[in-house]
Amino acid sequence: SGHSRDAIALLERALRIPATASDAVQVALARAYLGRAHVETKRDVARSLAMVRSARPVIAASKTSSRALGELDRWLVRKSREHHVLQLSRLFRDGLDDERMSVTVKDDPPG
Fold it and tell me: What's the CA gap between 73 and 67, in Å, rounded?
């Protein structure tokens, strides 16, 4: 969506700003939101989900981010499930269309 594309530009710019150790939670939140925006725009979904997951431990360690953590966890569960279903359907479809794989079947039992 347009909002996600706008968010990507802003978050990427924000993440280029030098940060200190005290900014760790804000940086993790920005990385999580950037990953989410990439997923929503279908940009490298697997890598973007990994970006969100890698930001989660820092957010979880913060006592002030419980609401953001709950929202992030619900989103991760939903999007991870969607991604796995899409991957499974692609694997199934690719398996049906792969004509390069042939198997010789012997009609007579051994012996």
Answer: 10
DSSP element (H, E) containing 105: none
Helix (H, G, I), strand (E, B) or coil at 35: helix
Question: CB count, 10 Å around CB of 30?
Answer: 20
- List, in sequence order, every beta strand (DSSP E) within the chain: none
Classify residue 100 by burial, with Cβ atoms within 10 Å: 0-12, 13-18, 19+. exposed
Given a cut of 70, whether residue 46 has pLDDT beyond it is: yes
State the chain's mean pLDDT as an integer: 82
- Dihedral sign of CA atoms 59, 65, 68, 70 in order: positive
Q: Kindly report the CA angle at 32 between 22 and 24, in degrees rounded to 5?
A: 10
Tell which wins on pLDDT, 88 or 53: 53
Share of the chain above pLDDT 70, in %: 73
Cα dist from 19 to 14, 28, 61, whole Å: 10, 11, 18
Tokens of residue 16, six digits:
């280029």
